[in-house]
Design goal:
Layout: H1 3-15, E1 19-20, H2 21-32, H3 38-52, E2 56-61, E3 64-69, H4 75-92, H5 107-110, H6 112-121, E4 123-130, E5 138-151, E6 154-161, E7 170-174, E8 178-187, H7 196-199, E9 213-220, H8 221-229, E10 237-241, E11 245-252, H9 256-264, E12 269-273, H10 275-292
């Protein structure tokens, strides 16, 4: 068991409810058939703050202390904890790896580390980018990397290039379309005005087609279960439940990526509003019919 795996074990044990040191020690002995000394617990407690940025505090209850996580975990911390949990489970079950089917994320293997380094050090990148459009045109430019985002097994970097028009040179680039990447000595200042969450407001994926609008969906009863367990967007709300269907609302951009998500659900979803999105899906269905009849 790696050191970080032990820290992760402790976080998971007290994430949902506080525990006394005795309860933590008993749980450790049950899980690992070993003792957890008080000094080791205190060392782990401090390391969790350094590694994960998570604070463990305590409240007194009688003669005992109840330890709990006092940090409000953000999406990044939850993602890291969940990812590390899965990774540790996989490592501990490598004897049955031929029975564990995974999906590859190829774009993370070559350039993600260098982009994150450039973001940390506020350094400009020289990028060789090959578009999937424009006959595969290749372009070399400098990029100030602002943030990265993952969508459908692809990593994307958002940043300011040095060839766009003023005010229109913040773009999104897929890492799997990068043919070359190098770190320059040139530095940049991350703008206070840029906020990744606001930048992607209403977006499903990385496309920005259209303005943020209210969308109403009628979803078949069985498919509604999938949308409840994995919402299309954080703004998703279930407004009505009926015997054969449910009504969901979202506030999103009716972009290419969003349309792709709707098509992924085949004929289990009907767009009620807005009419323009409903008409677009109807036209796509017509085109599919014409090509495949």
């Amino acid at each position: 068991m790696t050191p970080n795996a032990k820290l992760l074990w402790l976080v998971r044990k007290i994430k949902n409810r506080g525990r006394t040191l005795k309860e933590i020690q008993e749980a450790y002995e049950e899980d690992f058939q070993d003792k957890l000394p008080r000094r080791t617990f205190w060392s782990w407690k401090e390391n969790i703050g350094d590694v994960f940025g998570i604070d463990i505090d305590f409240v007194r209850k009688g003669r005992e202390c109840i330890y709990y996580i006092s940090t409000d975990l953000d999406d990044f911390q939850n993602w890291i904890l969940n990812s590390m949990s899965v990774n540790n489970e996989l490592l501990e079950n490598k004897s049955i790896r031929n029975r564990i089917m995974l999906e590859n994320v190829p774009s993370s293997q070559k350039y993600l580390s260098l982009i994150l380094k450039a973001m940390r050090e506020s350094k400009v990148l020289e990028v060789v980018h090959k578009s999937f459009w424009n006959n595969g045109e290749e372009k070399t430019f400098h990029l100030e990397p602002y943030c990265v985002k993952m969508f459908r097994q692809r990593w994307y970097v958002v940043g300011k290039n040095d060839y766009g028009k003023p005010g229109d040179n913040i773009r999104i680039y897929g890492l799997d379309r990068i043919g070359g990447l190098s770190l320059t000595d040139q530095r940049f200042t991350y703008p206070d005005s840029f906020n990744p969450e606001k930048y992607f407001d209403g977006c499903i994926g990385v496309c920005f087609d259209g303005e943020v609008t209210n969308v109403t969906l009628k979803v078949d009863v069985n498919q509604a279960n999938y949308l409840r367990s994995l919402p299309l967007h954080p703004s998703q709300k279930e407004k009505e439940q009926h015997d054969g269907y449910s009504i969901f609302t979202l506030r999103v951009r009716p972009s290419f990526d969003f349309v792709q998500e709707l098509l992924h659900n085949r004929d289990t979803i009907e767009v009620l509003e807005p009419k323009a999105l409903r008409d677009e899906l109807a036209q796509i269905a017509k085109n599919i019919w014409e090509k495949n009849r």
